[in-house]
Design goal:
This protein is an alpha/beta fold and about 375 residues long. It has helices spanning about 35-40, 55-70, 130-135, 140-145, 175-190, 205-215, 225-230, 250-260, 270-275, 295-305, 320-330, 355-360, and strands spanning about 5, 10, 15-20, 30, 50-55, 80, 90, 95-100, 105-115, 120-125, 150-155, 195-200, 220, 240, 245-250, 265-270, 285-290, 310-315. The protein has two domains: about 5-165 and about 295-360, Ribonuclease Z/Hydroxyacylglutathione hydrolase-like (Metallo-beta-lactamase, Chain A, 4-Layer Sandwich); about 175-290, Rossmann fold (3-Layer(aba) Sandwich). It contains twelve helices and 18 strands. The strands form four sheets. It has a six-stranded mixed β-sheet. Strands 7-8-9-10-11-18 form a six-stranded mixed β-sheet. Helix 2 runs antiparallel to helix 7 and helix 5 (about 175-190) crosses helix 6 (about 205-215). This is DRMBL domain-containing protein. GO terms for molecular function: 5'-3' DNA exonuclease activity; damaged DNA binding.
Length: about 375
């Protein structure tokens, strides 16, 4: 098998592209793991190749993004939806999509070739987080453990960075939302009139909903994200009228403009400043909450220890040979599973999961 690894995705045998969309004329199948901007940046209204395969929710979100953003102008006619947890037969291989526990619609891909000497068994994780909620997906986990993988392409967003931080665990996402809500209350008591939370176009839905539930207060979304909230069935937690609430969202780029043109405080949700030295806050009105939709180093190692595989490759950060060998030695090592448990007293207090609710409602493109 021939793998070409890019910053955004993977090309397999010059025949199958996952999150890596360029002008290679030999590619016959294109798969999109999520509507994340990093993966969608090559999808424009000039797209002239075959269809893009993705989950039903990603298809819905792409439709919104394409209608509102000129740079993501891919036509609906190119979008092909695939249901999760079932095999889909293609030319010379079959593929299955599994919830990746990242953003709504985000999936992993399992690809199996009809002739293993030509195309083996491959797992492309895409962006994912193997926390307690991931392991609640018993069906997905059992499928991942059925057979040995020839290659696993992992989400290495933080794996290299956390190498020297083996004791650093990312907080569970519910506690991050609770911490953000508590901070907003403190700021409100100090007379702060408005708070803005930078978020990407897709992702952080559970984080925002749990803040809204903690404070019993709606959060303002710009029209694009509000339309996506409608698709996910969570619009009751949000408003499209800014004057209705003191909690807003904005893009990362817009956050600096908010600081310069208003008296608002900014609450950023990320683990990047805690594991890298080149990220800092630029104002006393900026605050940081630890939050991640990606695996910590320990979570990734626990995930790999439950699977059988021969080779590891990584996106977006290339692994050192030492790290590669270390991760490959985890194959079915039976390492103690390490993930952050969701803190709750009853089922109603579990982290809100709009992604799974949306799939359960059976949306189709």
């Amino acid at each position: 098998m021939i793998f070409i690894i890019g910053q955004e995705g993977l090309l397999i045998n010059n025949f199958i592209a996952i999150d890596q969309f360029d002008t290679n004329p030999d590619v016959k199948y294109c798969f999109l793991s999520s509507a994340h901007s990093r993966h969608c940046q090559s999808l424009t209204n000039e797209w002239q190749f075959d269809g893009i395969y993705c989950s039903p929710i990603t298809a819905k979100v792409l439709s919104v993004i394409s209608s509102r953003k000129k740079r993501y102008g891919i036509s609906k006619k190119w979008i092909r939806t695939l249901d999760l947890n079932v095999w889909h037969k293609m030319d010379g291989f079959r593929v299955m999509l599994i919830d990746s526990n990242h953003a709504p619609g985000a999936v992993m891909f399992i690809i199996e070739g009809e002739h293993r000497n030509v195309l083996g068994r491959i797992l492309y994780t895409g962006f994912f987080r193997a926390d307690a909620r991931f392991y609640q997906n018993v069906i997905g986990l059992s499928i991942l453990q059925e057979e040995k993988f020839d290659v696993i392409c992992i989400d290495s967003t933080y794996v290299d960075f956390t190498r020297n931080f083996t004791g650093l665990e990312f907080p569970n996402r519910r506690s991050s939302a609770k911490e953000a809500a508590d901070l907003i209350l403190v700021l409100k008591r100090k007379g702060v009139e408005s708070v803005a939370i930078p978020v990407p176009i897709i992702g952080y839905e559970g984080f925002l909903v749990n803040i809204s539930r903690e404070l019993n207060c709606k959060i303002w979304l710009h029209p694009e994200r509000f339309e996506i909230a409608h698709i996910l069935g969570i619009n009751d937690y949000f408003s499209d009228i800014k004057e209705d609430t003191y909690i807003w969202t904005c893009s990362e780029i817009e956050s600096q403009q908010v600081l310069c043109t208003t008296n608002s405080h900014i609450i950023k949700a990320s683990v990047a400043p805690y594991i890298t030295s080149n990220v800092s806050l630029n104002s006393e009105r900026e605050h940081m909450i630890q939050y991640s939709d990606h695996c910590s180093s320990a979570e990734l190692r626990s995930f790999l220890s439950l699977l059988s595989f021969s080779r590891i490759i990584a996106i977006p950060n290339e692994l050192s040979r030492l790290m590669e060998d270390e991760l490959q030695n985890l194959s079915l090592s039976g390492a103690e599973t390490m993930h952050c448990k969701e803190e709750h007293g009853n089922p109603e207090e579990l982290l809100f999961d709009p992604c799974r609710i949306s799939w359960r409602l059976g949306f189709h493109f």
